[in-house]
Design brief:
The protein has 219 residues and is an alpha+beta fold. Helices cover 28% and strands 12% of the residues.
């Protein structure tokens, strides 16, 4: 059974916002939790029944009240209704080859153009497009004012490095004519925290965190 079969009623039913915390003071959101669960289900080829049991098990292990998704249908609808739907990127299942084949699901009987291995619909990695997420964030009415934070902040020590804006590289691009001299341009800071959330032989989940430097630290 495919635990990610699409249901036609997805657009008609209300789903939980992906930015809600899983529970009070939770280190991850509903969206992050769901993405990790999906990765786990794909890796271990869980059936729909097994995935629904896992959802219920996690629900019982989390503090109450919580925003855990407990039903398979709700889990499916969550991914179909995301503002930024996930994109599947397929690749060759041959452990030596692993050549990228694109975002279109392989047709029945299709083979790898490099090694000839039959292509599988289960060999893929997932992406939530960053550009679309940025469009949503920056389209908020209050964001124009918040992007001016770097020009209006009060430094406690003129000679100290208190934020990314005080760094040599940032200052270089903020000089007149530089990319960041334009008040509406942004830069991103990326990190992975150095630790994989899930790791096993030939498989891993590394969350890449991107921060918009120009938004106030409190946001």
């Amino acid at each position: 059974m495919d635990c990610f079969i699409e249901t036609p009623s997805a657009c008609q039913e209300e789903v939980m916002p992906d930015n809600l915390p899983l529970y009070q003071d939770s280190p991850i959101s509903v969206g992050e939790s769901s993405l990790l669960l999906m990765a786990f289900a794909v890796r271990h080829k869980l059936s729909g029944v097994a995935l629904e049991d896992l959802l219920e098990l996690i629900h019982f292990h989390c503090p109450k009240p919580n925003n855990c998704i407990t039903e398979l249908k709700e889990f499916q609808l969550f991914f179909q209704a995301l503002k930024h739907p996930i994109v599947k990127h397929f690749y060759c299942s041959n452990g030596v080859c692993k050549v990228y084949s694109g975002t279109s699901q392989p047709e029945t009987g299709a083979t790898c153009t490099v090694c000839g291995t039959p292509l599988s619909c289960s060999s893929y990695f997932i992406e939530i497009p960053v550009v679309e997420q940025l469009k949503t964030i920056l389209s908020r009415p209050e964001m124009i004012e918040k992007l001016e934070y770097r020009f209006k902040r009060n430094k406690e020590d003129v000679g100290a490095i208190e934020d990314v804006y005080d760094g040599e590289l940032y200052k270089k691009h903020s000089c007149p004519g530089g990319f960041l001299s334009e008040p509406h341009n942004i830069s991103l800071l990326g990190n992975t925290d150095g630790v994989a959330l899930i790791r096993s032989n030939g498989y891993g989940v590394w969350p890449v965190n991107l921060t918009i430097n120009e938004i106030p630290p409190t946001e």
